[in-house]
Design a protein that fits this description.
42% of the residues lie in helices and 16% in strands. It is of the alpha/beta class. Helix 10 runs parallel beside helix 11. The longest helix has 22 residues. The chain is globular and about 50 Å long.
């Protein structure tokens, strides 16, 4: 699966009483589908996955996927503390036609999370996961940074295709890219070298022979007639290295220069276009424009996402036409002063 580009780390909307607001989730996903992002991560850190029950996580996955455009790569956050529970959610994601799973590092039993324990955990998940696995290192929340040498070993597994690195350090991304160089895989891409998702393939597979009732067309007797099948999806192959994605909008440009192929960004929840513009300028080789676009989003990436957190990301979503609402307790809503600060920071980051 090709992971290049910007992925929105989407939020999970709630009603005022804390119940999951599925209709607003659907609304947000439909709007992201009209944006230039490569795809979305559902139930990541920005999605407050850790605060949802197993049943709620499944409801969110079930609601988001049919609202997404077929060409958008959909990644499900399925990381749990045990291999068993992680695989159960990965199987649900596969049934729902997600394209890959994001698996954060287990961390509750931190003293026992040795390199050997991490290798065992991720290999066991990857051995049985029906979907490709993306490693997720987010030390700001787990107090554990997946070691580069462990990532290098895991990159050799055929079902582990990439890493989301939320360390905030482009130099670490450069180290991971260097350590995993040579771990190549062949992926299917479109004629314009974009990702091919499972949902793009599904209509072509199911439309080999379809029928409609003649009376629905003419009002006559019931009969059936062949319908011209949808054109077969034409793909080509592309060789890719182990794919590293940054988790920080404030270091997006530097991370791309260091070897990242894109980013899974909390700031791309309220402002996907602004994040995409950094990526596009870099992709086109315009370092000056990329740096300029980076300067535009860096203050919001630092203060809104990294420091003020989920409540601020959700308020920024409200400002930019997505539904944000409040976070789930024990996360607190913003104060009036903090809301004013977010409004100022997002003033030039409006889409």
């Amino acid at each position: 699966m090709l992971l290049e580009g910007i992925f929105s780390a989407i939020t999970t909307p709630f009603y005022g009483d804390g119940t999951v607001y599925l209709r607003k989730l659907e609304h947000n996903v439909e709007r992201y589908s009209r944006s230039p992002v490569a795809g979305m991560v559902v139930l990541g850190s920005t999605g407050e996955a850790i605060l949802l029950s197993r049943e709620e996580q499944l409801e969110v996955l079930e609601t988001a996927i049919p609202a997404a455009a077929a060409e958008k790569v959909m990644i499900a956050g399925v990381g749990q503390e045990s291999v068993r529970h992680t695989l159960a959610l990965a199987e649900d994601a596969a049934r729902l036609q997600y394209d890959a799973v994001l698996v954060r590092t287990p961390h509750f039993y931190r003293p026992q999370m040795t390199p050997q324990a991490m290798l065992t955990y991720y290999r066991a998940v990857a051995d049985s996961s029906p979907l490709p696995v993306v490693l997720y290192s987010v030390p700001v929340f787990t107090n554990y940074d997946l070691p580069v040498d462990v990532v290098a070993e895991l990159a050799m597994h055929p079902n582990i295709i990439g890493l989301k690195d939320s360390s905030g350090r482009p130099e670490r991304i450069a180290e991971v890219v260097a350590a995993t160089r040579g771990n190549k895989a062949t992926v299917a891409v479109t004629n314009v070298f974009r990702a091919v998702t499972g949902r793009m393939r599904a209509p072509a597979a199911s439309a080999a022979r379809a029928f409609v009732a003649i009376d629905s067309l003419t009002g006559g007797a019931i009969a059936t007639a062949d319908v011209t099948p949808a054109p077969t999806l034409k793909t080509r192959s592309r060789e890719v290295e182990f794919q590293v994605l940054t988790g920080g909008a404030q270091t997006l440009h530097a991370s791309l220069v260091a070897g990242a192929v894109g980013g899974v960004l909390g700031l791309a929840a309220p402002a996907p276009q602004c994040c995409y513009e950094v990526y596009t300028a870099w992709k086109e080789g315009d370092a000056g424009l990329a740096a300029e676009k980076q300067q535009r989003i860096a203050p919001a990436g630092t203060r809104v996402v990294s420091q003020l957190g989920i409540a601020a990301v959700k308020y920024a979503c409200d400002l930019n036409g997505y539904y944000g609402g409040r976070p789930r307790l024990p996360l607190l809503p913003l104060t009036a002063e903090q809301r004013g600060e977010v409004e100022t920071l997002m003033g030039d980051v409006r889409y």
